[in-house]
Amino acid sequence: xxARYALYYAPPQDHALTMLASAWLxxxxxxxxxxxxxxxxxxxxxxxxxxxxxGDAGHYGFxxxxxxxxxxxxxxxxxxxxxxFATFAAGQPAFMADLAVTSLSGFVAxxxxxxxxxxxxxxxxxVHGFEPFRAALSDxxxxxxxxxxxxxxxxxxxxxxxxxxxxxxxxxxxxxxxRVRDDATREHVVSALRAYLAPVTGPHEIAQLCLFRQSxxxxxxxxxxxxxxxxxx
Length: 233
Prior knowledge:
Elements: E1 4-9, H1 16-25, E2 27-28, E3 33-34, H2 47-60, E4 64-71, H3 78-90, E5 95-104, E6 107-112, H4 117-129, H5 139-145, H6 152-161, E7 173-175, H7 183-196, E8 202-206, E9 208-214, E10 222-228
Antiparallel strand pairs: 1-4, 1-9, 2-3, 5-6, 5-8, 6-7, 9-10
């Protein structure tokens, strides 16, 4: 399979949120290095259980999806994508958002504490702006996506845009765990992560966009470019 690319939000490499979240996930998408995991107060998990809890999230690196992973169309190159990415970011404004640790469909994530039209606008612009670079999904990828329940409209978006949960179904989230099916355990993890990330939650400036690359499906995503959002005046 070809490399995949994704437009994600991730904080700067030296931001405290990046360092804390990367340590929790055990992987730094900026460097491609595994990171020593912290011992969280009140969370009694051995190393194996912690890897099981965070492994899938860590594979993608700490991020929020704005345009989901895609392979490049035959007519496009990585160089083309990098140029378009820089141009796109220069036309988008930075903005503030309130972040909070919560749960979403059984996962624990950093999410918006309240609706944010600027975030919705950035997501919509990313989906439309980079659609010309996306190759159509393979039959295998379509089948994989369709294992999740979705409406007819979501299935149509899967075909049209390569991902079903976009536009009004978009939920900004920076995933911190895999699915935690036990409610009590999940709330315990939420509580521990709220305490761990307390210094970096609340008001947060969304001031850059990152381009991630996965060279093959078995390898984790890495950041290959980050551009500041400098539009809007």
